[in-house]
Amino acid sequence: MNWGKVAIIALIGGGALAGAGVWYTQEYAFFDTIDPASAQAQITVETATGPVPLTLTAFEGINADSSPIRWRICGQAGALPEGMTPAPASEPLNGPRWFSCYDAPGIGADLQSGAATAYLAQSEIRPDVDRILAVYPDGRVFGWHEYNDKNPERGVMD
């Protein structure tokens, strides 16, 4: 056997293994499901008078400690509080494919068409990160965390 072939097989095999490892960590590793009874499942919404709790049924959620923007939820709200703070420039972030209740491209298209409305659930849930909820007229609610633009002149490594 030629040592060049061995080197090529080792490089290609190593690259394939590294790629599979990166894919697995992005799609599955670090994600935990959120128990509906946990504190992470207790959602509040910003209103003109302050934060108001929002009760969700059919709750599904995921989160990961590895990043402040990996939080995603799906649920059904009964009554929505009056005076919720709109978040018109929000765009949902993609979630892992296995979290099937959350469809970021569909939610984004619905936000742009007006079929859903984005609201600020909690400002600065972590430094420079806001919690956003997309709410549909039928009470469906989808949530995610996104970086805010409150300090655009700052660099990433402050």
Q: Give me the Rg, rounded.
A: 20 Å
Order of strands in the sheet with most strands: 1-4-5-8-7-6
Write down the overall geometry: elongated
Topology order in helix (H) and strand (E) letters: HEEEEEHEEE
Q: What is the total tally of β strands?
A: 8
- Percent range for β-strand residues: 25-35%
**What are the segments in which pLDDT stays under 50 over at least 5 consecutive residues?**
none
In angstroms, what separates the terminal alpha carbons? Answer: 54 Å
Give the total of domains.
2
Tell me the helix content: 10-25%
The averaged pLDDT comes out at 87
Overview of the structural elements:
Helix content is 22%, strand content 34%. β2 and β3 form a beta hairpin. It contains two helices and eight strands. The longest helix is centred in the first third of the chain and has 25 residues, at 3-27. Strands 1-4-5-8-7-6 form a six-stranded antiparallel sheet. Strands 2-3 form a two-stranded antiparallel ribbon. The chain has helices spanning 3-27, 104-113, and strands at residues 31-33, 43-47, 50-54, 56-64, 72-77, 117-126, 129-135, 140-147. The chain folds into two domains: 1-31; 34-147, no CATH class. The protein has 158 residues and is an alpha+beta fold. The model has no long low-confidence stretch (mean pLDDT 87).
Compile the SSE list and pairings:
Layout: H1 3-27, E1 31-33, E2 43-47, E3 50-54, E4 56-64, E5 72-77, H2 104-113, E6 117-126, E7 129-135, E8 140-147
Antiparallel strand pairs: 1-4, 2-3, 4-5, 5-8, 6-7, 7-8
